[in-house]
Amino acid sequence: MEWQFKLEHLLKVKILDYHQKFSFRNNVYLVDAINRYGVKLQYIVKEYVKLGAGNEAFIINSLRNQGLLVPRIVWNDNSSIIMEYIDGILLTDLLTDKTISHRDWINPLARWLYQLHDTMKHGNKNCLSKLDLNLRNFIFTGEHFYGIDFEEVCFYPPERDLGVLCAFILNNDPMFCEWKFTICSLLVKTYQRMYASTANDQLDYQAIQYYLIDELRAAAERREKQRPYLLAKIEELSREAQIISHGG
Hints:
Elements lengths: L1 H10 L1 E9 L5 E9 L4 E8 L6 H12 L7 E4 L3 E5 L4 E2 H4 L7 H18 L1 E2 L3 E5 L7 E3 L4 E3 L5 E4 L1 H13 L7 H22 L5 H18 L4 H12 L10
Antiparallel strand pairs: 1-2, 2-3, 3-5, 4-5, 6-9, 7-8, 8-11, 9-10
Helix pairs in contact: 4-6, 5-6, 5-7, 7-8
Organism: Desulfoscipio gibsoniae DSM 7213
GO molecular function: protein serine/threonine kinase activity
Protein name: Mn2+-dependent serine/threonine protein kinase
């Protein structure tokens, strides 16, 4: 593979082992390597299938320069990115990890999301948003969250990201558990405290609900086998005046 030559030649390391990681759109590898001094290192290599790597590399570097926790890019060209490996647990696994209290990671997650939104504003309320809020794109190190996968960003009000992220949490297996609604309420409440302290404003809970339902509809389109169940839940939740409470 071309990226193997690039990694060994450009970074002056020897590859010991590698295996492919889960990715919908690209080829992603976790690589174990060793340098000339005998120090073992780990990298993530992202090999692009369709889009070029330049746009994501620019976004990641820009966010990192503004203090956001994202992986450090070691090297890139227009076809691949080599970046540091972040050792931690994915948000999708945190939800079912009974050894970690949900309250231990909700605040860091809300803080990371708020800091992303605070990096760039457009208009009265729109802010920089992460288009893909899949739970696999958030890594918890035990103290902080890192965000990964920035192929596409957009500008939306913060309610969009909160609603979409809550939708991913709710329809991730096991789906629509009561404790997941509590997690979503705590996440939004924590974000609201940060938002009110700096923007001196209140979140629009109806907008959060709109984006939450909209993402569930998109999930129903993607998942043929789960579609009837998801559509039934969407109809049920649409009748509720408020899905995510102000408390929690």
